[in-house]
Structures are given as C-alpha cells and as structure tokens.
C-alpha cells in the first residue's frame, strides 16, 4: 500500500496541564509529512479529521482506503480538501484531470471512487490534505487564490499584517463540514491569529510552510488561562482541539493552512480571547 494513516487519540484539557514538552509534541505535532511515493497522515479523534501529505516522486499515487475507515474506498463516506504547496501538478478524480498550481485548492466530494495524484518531472509535488466525514455528495471543485474570499488584516506596526484566503468555505464552494484556507504573512510580520480564539463547535489543524531555512514558528495552544507552546519547522502541522487557542509567532514571515471540521460552517463562530487575558 502507498497510503499509511496512523491514529491520534484526543486529549482532555485537564490532562494537558501536566504534559511535558515531549508529550505535547507527541500528541499534537505532526513532524514527518512528505514521504517519497507515499500518502501519509494522521486520523485524529478530534472530529475524525484526517490530516496528511502526498508526495509522488517516481510514480502516480492512488488514494487507497485505510483500516480506520472500514470502507471500500477512501471517500465512500468522506470528503477531502487538497492544497498544493509544491510545483504545479495534476490530480485525477474519477477520470477527470485537474491541474493544480502552487497554493491552489481542490475539493473532492463524497463517493468519488478513483483519485490519483501524479508526480512532476522535478519531483517537487507536495500536496497537503484534510479529510472529514461527509453526509452529502458535492461536486469536485478547483479553487484558485483568485476565486477565494480574500481578507487582509493586521498591520506591520503590530507585526501581524496578513492576507487570508478562504479557499474551501461555504461562501466559495459547497462542502459538508470541511473548511480550509491559507494565511500569508507579509514580510516583517510574524504573528498569526492574534487576538487568539477558541471554538468549541469545531477543531482545527494548522500546517506551516514557506518557513524559510533556519527559521521556526512558536505555535501557542491550550486553554486561554493555561497556554503552552510548540516549536514548529517547515512542513509540520499542529492538531488543535476545540478547547485550545491556536496562534503563532515566527522568527520570519511564513504561510500556514488552516483546516476545520465540526459542528457548523460559520467561519465567524469563535470565542475571542483578549491578549491581556492569556496566561
């Protein structure tokens, strides 16, 4: 098999308070994303989201069913969102070929039986994906940055000048519960998602990329009155439970992909935390 998914169990916020550095990293950080000629990732019990990477180099890779799903095909009861973080590539979904450029997204709906990821000549195909349980079938849709809902927030003075591209959200494309987008920080800015927030109605995953060589991001998580941090490198991701804030600051600007699944599709459904209330 070319598809390998491991299971990650959820954690209680009271238990989280006692975790040391290694345990926090083990339970919430995904370090190894892109393995040559493999589809790999994590099945998290947080809203049963699958978070993973696809890296075809010498051959095309088919999205195969995994044991956790107990299904004939990967998307028998699921939807998937894919964002290209590498070179331009091609994805085939039930015979239709979609060309995906860097930082473009593809939504593939429930019931699609045959999904194939093709390599580029340079071997620079890096695809990040989130997959969530689905109850309806919606059409496969490609979304570019030009098609996204775009919001620019923050300022250089506050080190958080950033552009948010809402790629796979219900104002742009029909999905069941999956939402995905991308936030690019401007040069000179390092803070993301500050003021921080939580949303008990859904979990979130953060995938950091465009982190320049030699730089890192400190990702902050935990309940607002009991925060911790994880140092994150390029092409690594954080699983963020519903009870946790999700924010970060880097040693340089960077880009990250956010993905959500859970109770509702209201992007603005969040409980904001004042910076002065964080502990």
From TrEMBL:
Question: What protein am I looking at?
Answer: 4-deoxy-L-threo-5-hexosulose-uronate ketol-isomerase
- Cofactor binding summary note: Binds 1 zinc ion per subunit.
Q: Does the keyword rRNA-binding apply?
A: no
| Species name | Algoriphagus iocasae
Q: Which NCBIfam families match?
A: PRK00924.1 (NF002091)
Provide the binding site for Zn(2+): 197, 199, 204, 246
Gene it is expressed from: kduI
Question: EC number(s) of the enzyme?
Answer: 5.3.1.17
List, in alphabetical order, the Gene Ontology terms for molecular function in this entry. 4-deoxy-L-threo-5-hexosulose-uronate ketol-isomerase activity; zinc ion binding
What UniProt keywords apply to this chain's record, in alphabetical order? Isomerase, Metal-binding, Zinc
